[in-house]
Amino acid sequence: MPPLQLTGQVLDVRRAGMYTVLSLTAPGLAERTRPGHFLNIGIGGEESALLLRRAFAIYQVQSRGVYGGSVDIVIGPHGKGTKWLVDRRRHDNLSIVGPLGRPFTLPKNPANCILVGGGYGTAPLFMLADQLRERGCRVDVIAGAATEEKLFGTLEIKRAASTLTVTTDDGSMGTRGRVTDVLEDVIERSAADVIYACGPMGMLSAVAAIAAARGVYVQTSVEEAMACGIGVCMTCVLPVIGEDGITRMVRSCVDGPVFRGDQVRWADVGTIPADALGAPTGGQ
Question: Of 153, 158, 204, which Cα lies nearest the Cα of 178?
Fold first, then answer.
């Protein structure tokens, strides 16, 4: 179904560690949402000089209620736009477009699944974990961050997981190290069939490499700057190998954000490989 453009109203603003969770009215949007979808939100109000929308992974949805449906997003304030957004209050209006992008693909039959999240990259994994469990899948979760305060929702996602493994770079919670330091052990213990990952690009690259070495199918939700979110501006392109073996520069916002981890050319992200279809030649 096509995405919706609507005016949503802030229902709730709550802190979750160093992050902020916004609940927004979104009639009709919740029913269209699948794990891995994202939405775009207008920033700064109608008279703001902040022209570009901001993209946020969808954390949770409620399809029923007094307001006809709601959607939750998780915000880590970094710049002027996200700081403006976390200052919103109940009943403030926001311009929303969504759901956008290609979501995760769920197994047709029960499978052993590992979900790997980095920081608040775990946000889209909550809906995914619930839907995998509904399909009879085993769900093992690895959540990592630089420090304990940068983890998101570990207690909540633990309830949907067969096991939860937490890592922090500084050892302030769980195992000291990165998610990739424990991933092979979790693959072994769970006899994993598929890995789903969302987080920083470096983490996704490392997870994809381990999955490839172990012969495990992997889906990655990439973190690329999406200025428009609808495939027009071309700021979020990255090199991906197609089923025909040809590398193309594809748009994360409409062709992703979920890609097969073994098809993304991680080492070439941020460049146009010389062998990519349509790449400029030396004579141009």
Answer: 204
